[in-house]
Amino acid sequence: MRILHLLKSNKYSGAENVVLTIMDVCSDMDMVYASPNGSIREVVESRGHEFYPLNRPTIREVKKAIRELHPDVIHAHDFTMASTAAWAAGDIPVIAHLHNNPPWLKKVGVKSIVFALALPKIRQVISVSKAVEDEYIFRGLMKNKNTVIGNVVDAEDVRQKAREKSDCKPVDLVYLGRMSLPKNPLEFCKIVCEVKRLFPNITARMIGDGELMPQVKEYICSHELEDIIELVGFQSNPYPYLNAGKIMVMPSIWEGFGLAAVEGMCLGKPVVCSGVGGLENIIDESCGAKCRTTDEYSRILLKLLKDNTTYEVESKNAMRKSGRYTDMKKYADDICRIYKAAIER
Q: Are 55 and 38 in contact (CB under 8 A)?
């Protein structure tokens, strides 16, 4: 079976990580990764997978890829590429893999209508959390097509990579994610600033890059946080930098699943987060906390920083609870079952 994975981004981030995990665990299948050319190509090929460059993520380019690659199934990731694939695929089965639940899902608008028009042409839908379907205004169109399959983390791989030699110093708080609106990096900076008032020696690290990096740098400078928040940018192996942090903070505005939270938990990091999307079911008070305001984040983080007993308990619970999201064989079986259902439907 030949599977064509379609993505619109040319950089490595959460959804791209999920696709590469699928390609790794379903190694007995013939899979191709197709997206606009960019830094992602090096990551894909370094993992031993085939990369096909799209000039642009358009219907015309997808049709060209189909003619050249002859896939049996098209696995399109996120709403834009799922809609594009639906109109380009002809009789080839299309699977829409929805990795997040953006706010526009809840409203009647161009994006929600475009996906609604594409859904009849889509054979199967995979959503990473129940919140994706629940929040979609035209959710009825997904009925009997959607399967919730949470993301999976190769815990041993994460722990092995975390042990690689690095010159990063220990810090109290760590942020891992794109510097983009959904991940809310500016709120992380505000949280650090608030904690600093009562915990002057606080240290923090932000791992990632993106369009909000200039605003993040400006905030850090204007609030005199240069010696407190370390910016390390995008890292092909972020895990030593994550592992050197004590507590993971995820103030996301929206999340489909919350893969980074599980990666942090694998390393024994309590996760203090917003609780949106899939984070609602991943994090509880035994391994972190869900917060709504900057003050609430500050209060919870101060407790974890000052109370070693509470921290140790939550750290152990985080590692234990991460086990629910690390069964690689079950994940591969679930994905393969979707492929077969798409062909048979």
A: no
CB atoms under 10 Å from CB of 225, counted, come to: 17
Sheet holding 245-250, edge to edge: 229-233, 204-207, 171-176, 245-250, 271-273, 288-290
Euclidean distance between CA atoms 162 and 146, whole angstroms: 35
How many whole angstroms separate alpha carbon 252 and alpha carbon 155?
23
What pLDDT is recorded for position 9? 92
Q: Do 102 and 84 touch, CB atoms closer than 8 A?
A: no
What is the per-residue pLDDT for 278?
87
User: Which pair of tokens denotes residue 173?
Assistant: 């708080």
CA dihedral 330, 336, 337, 342 (to 10 degrees): 150
Q: What is the arithmetic mean of pLDDT over 259-279?
A: 95
Question: At residue 336, what are phi and psi to the nearest 5 degrees?
Answer: -65, -35
Residue 104 token pair: 């526009």
DSSP string, 188-241: HHHHHHHHHHH-TT--EEEE---TTHHHHHHHHHHTT-TTTEEEEE--SS-HHH
Q: What is the pLDDT of residue 344?
A: 87
